[in-house]
Amino acid sequence: MDELREITQHLLRFSPDALVVIDDANRIRFANETVKELFGYAPEDLIGKPLDLLIPERLRAHHGKHTASFMRSPNNREMGARIADLFALRADGSEFSAGIRLAPIRIGGRLFVAAAIRDTTERRLASEELIAARKEADRANRAKSRFLATASHDLRQPMQTIQLLNASMMKFVPEPQVRELLQQQGQAIESMTRLLNALLDISRLESGAIEPVSVEVPVADVFEELRTEFSSLARARGIDLRVESQRVVLSTDRTLFYQLLQNLVGNALKYTDHGWVRIRCSTDAEGVTIAVEDSGIGIPADKLERIFDEYYQVDTHGTKRMGVGLGLAIVKEVARLLGFSVKIQSTVGQGTQAQLLIPNKFRVASALATTESAAAPTHAAALHKARLILVEDNDGVRVATELFLKLEGHETLSARTVAEAEVLLEGLAPGDVVIADYHLDGRNTGLDLLLRLRERVGYDVPGVILSGDLPSVLRSIKSPVVACHFLSKPVNTAALVDAIAELSATAPG
Questions:
Q1: Domain check: are 281 and 411 in the same one?
Q2: Is 402 exposed, middle or buried (0-12, 13-18, 19+ CB in 10 A)?
Q3: What is residue 27's three-state secondary structure?
Q4: What is the pTM of this model?
Q5: Owning domain of residue 68
Q6: 327 and 453 both lie in a single domain
Q7: Which residues, at least 6 apart from 44, have a Cβ–Cβ distance to it below 8 Å?
Q8: Among 52, 16, 51, residue whose Cα is nearest residue 33
Q9: Could you report the per-residue pLDDT of 410-424, keeping only the tens digit for each?
Q10: Distance between CA atoms of residues 355 and 326, nearest Å
């Protein structure tokens, strides 16, 4: 028993924490040896002294209120748990950040309070550094988001101008050699566009700025969009693009889902010099599998583990491939966001198969009636050339777009501002098609302009909305917009012509 008492006394005297006991008059009745190390006072010098001796003067009134509150309802707890700053005062007048644990003790019906005190300066500094780092990270993310918003719009505008001017020059030039040069220039512009899109997409994904929004998505419709987008590129490269679909409807983010497949198909075409690229969909008990297959160069077995790394490109035996190696990195991140998985199988010289594995929980049980777009006749050759009203606030893009559309045989009127557009639209006739940039000014978007026009004239005026940040625009739209095509800047000229032709064919008048 004596040994136990000695151990207890030793622990009290030399505890890692400074221990003091105060009475109900707020005077110190006990202090251990650690108090000297922490506060600079000998324990015997504190006995009978008021606790205020260990508290900075500026905090004494505040501390007194909390002590009184504790005495009214004593319990074991951390002192200052709800106080932002808790400091103690040393004998030399210096202060330190303190952590204090309180425990009530009753002896002979009288209340005493035991306090265990430690220096928490390092922990406080680490916490402040963490808070500062978090604020800096938030600031950097906000700056990155602002850059992405600016880059998405401003960087794409000159690319749009160059692309349209190149397409217009193709209409003027009959000489085969010059046309070949323009075609090569057009391919370079398309490559630059894909690079810009990839860089902006991966930055947006890494910033965490994208939250998936699920809607019902017919796979057949998405496949037909892929056919439309990539058919001209496949033809130019002499590749047979095969699209095989099923009547499957998924619950997912449509924009991200399309972006994922867009990167898989683009990658397949990039690494296929001849032969075919096939997109197909199948279902089984596990879920839905979408496969993008090609007869391309293939990927060596020792490179398969790295293909999803950012900026990594497969060695193509000396053949230079345009790109920065972001396509599959985007695929991996988007698949993760959507809850899908991606598997790649490949054999050198025989081709590659990319499989998108979609669990059954994302499949809509009662499939919507999908549009038979795959079998629908193209409108590109429609005889009717609609009159177009173009609204674009960038002078270079407006002039280039107007020139291109006029060379396509369309009467085209253009406006630089919303006010100018309102004047032009007073003369709107049935069959006219509106083409507008989404970001017009601080108060109006191209879609706002189109919807106001529809409300005024009483029918769904056909429209094409162009945007340099199309994924964000599509996420902001809460319900489908009929008789309206949304195209990304820099716009693919063939896609623009097809959209106008399709809208013209279905427009009233």
A1: no
A2: buried
A3: strand
A4: 0.52
A5: 2-119
A6: no
A7: none
A8: 16
A9: 999 999 999 999 999
A10: 18
